[in-house]
Write a structure and sequence with these properties.
The chain contains six helices and ten strands; from the N terminus they run H-H-E-H-H-E-E-E-E-E-E-H-E-E-H-E. It has two domains: 130 residues, D-3-phosphoglycerate dehydrogenase, domain 3 (60s Ribosomal Protein L30, Chain: A); 72 residues, 2-Layer Sandwich (Alpha-Beta Plaits). 37% of the residues are buried. The N terminus is likely disordered. The strands form two sheets. It has a six-stranded mixed β-sheet with strand order 2-1-3-4-5-6.
Length: 222
């Protein structure tokens, strides 16, 4: 069996020798963009710990910007992303922090547009990532599954109503995680599924009166 090399993971055209700092950064930016559903007008990347200390040398800043602009890991434009025409389409900046409470390779992606959004995530090694927070909600989102993300009012029957829609379409749930501010207040639901969700299923779920916001995020390319 062929062994994977570092170049298999991060692609030889990418700047930076670290899969955590480069490939992971691209995937974090791309997943944040996919959650938001479009290229934002303005974004602030807040890098923590190792990301802040060595990120420039390893191409973390390039990777994060490339991802938020919709580029994937193998895209040759990443190397010169700061000079590219697509980078000129948004207002962006990088800030650097130390925080022992955060993962060594951690970032907050603050998105500003018609709707503002804050997304936090970690690069956990070998190009793998984990989104840990969307706005005030704690989540666990790796980008390895097609995923349904909901914000809703915490009421009895909401979870069963959503899962019933998936059951009716013979969609298997790989994992389901919920978080809430307080009983009866705003809550979030992250449902990873096997297979693909048709747009009409998402629309039916979004039409439920207790559900405020729904987005469907397809898994990232390997």
């Amino acid at each position: 069996m062929k062994k994977s090399t570092l170049f298999d993971i991060i692609s030889p055209v990418m700047a930076g020798p670290s899969s955590s700092h480069t490939a992971g950064a691209v995937r974090l930016g791309l997943l944040a963009r996919n959650i938001y559903k479009k290229t934002p007008k303005k974004v602030i990347f807040k890098l923590y710990n190792s990301y802040a200390q060595t990120g420039k040398g390893h191409g973390t800043d390039k990777g994060l910007l490339a991802g938020i602009l919709g580029l994937n890991v193998a895209d040759r434009r990443i190397k010169n992303i700061f000079e590219s025409d697509i980078a000129k389409s948004i207002d962006y900046k990088f800030e650097y922090y130390d925080d022992f409470n955060r993962h060594p390779n951690s970032v907050d992606i603050e998105i500003f547009d018609d709707t503002n959004m804050s997304i936090s995530g970690d690069s956990v090694g070998a190009g793998e990532i984990l989104i840990t927070r969307i706005n005030e909600f704690h989540v666990s989102l790796s980008g390895n599954y097609n995923t349904l993300i909901l914000v809703y009012r915490d009421r009895p029957g909401v979870i069963s109503a959503v899962t019933s829609f998936l059951q009716d379409e013979n969609i298997n749930i790989a994992s389901l995680d919920c978080d809430r501010n307080a009983k009866g207040q705003d809550a979030s639901m992250i449902i990873c599924v096997d297979g693909h969700l048709n747009p009409d299923i998402v629309e039916k779920i979004e039409a439920q009166k207790e559900i405020y916001w729904v987005t469907y995020v397809e898994k990232l390319e390997s």
